[in-house]
Amino acid sequence: MWAVLFLLPALVLSSEGVHHSLPRVRAQKILAEGGFAPLPRSATQLRVYGWWFPDEVGRCMMFRATAQDVEEFLNASPTLKGRKCKKFSPERMRMLFPRDTTKWMEYIEAGHELIGPLSGPPWYKEEIKGYGRYYSVPTKDYRGSGQVIVDDEENIVYVKVIWS
Question: What is the rounded distance in angstroms from the CA atom of residue 64 to the CA atom of residue 101?
């Protein structure tokens, strides 16, 4: 009897910890904190990553969904209401500054957007070399910043939220 009384709270607490570490639960929390719509039903290939530094907390995630669900997610996200996106294509890419500095002006003059070195997991794709969209957004409480990148060719959505 005493063993059950002592083990029961440990089981309850550990199951709660396991539940909160599930990718879908973590993703829903990131979306809620950033003021985004809930994860679409068709979301697959879900990945979640978080980091903490003394002056910054960040979370990023990605998911693949149907094209219709991606559009519904974007339209239902309060944080994206009234926000304009930058559209990209093979003719106008968003890409990392090339190591060869002599090519910088060539790329800028061609209409490409160059971005600095990135931090985050290898699966988080900030470059857009095909058809896609980029939204820069504040967080729901305006104490941080975020971004949404949509790969329109693969129907993958990338979300990053950073609080300072």
Answer: 35
pTM above 0.85, yes or no: no
- The residues that bridge with 137 in the sheet, in sequence order, are 146
**Given the structure tokens 């959505």, which residue do they identify?**
157
Residue 73's nearest CA partner among 155, 160, 146 is 155
| 143 vs 128, residue with greater confidence | 128
106 contacts 66 by C-beta, under 8 angstroms: no
CB 35 within 8 A of CB 139: yes
User: For the chain, where are the E strands, in sequence order?
Assistant: 44-53, 56-64, 86-88, 94-96, 113-115, 132-138, 144-151, 156-163
Tokens of residue 88, six digits? 């990209």
Please give the helix or strand (H or E) that residue 17 lies within, else none: helix 2-21
Instruction: Tell me the pLDDT band of 142, cut-offs 50, 70 and 90.
Output: low
- 149 and 134 in contact (C-beta within 8 Å)? yes
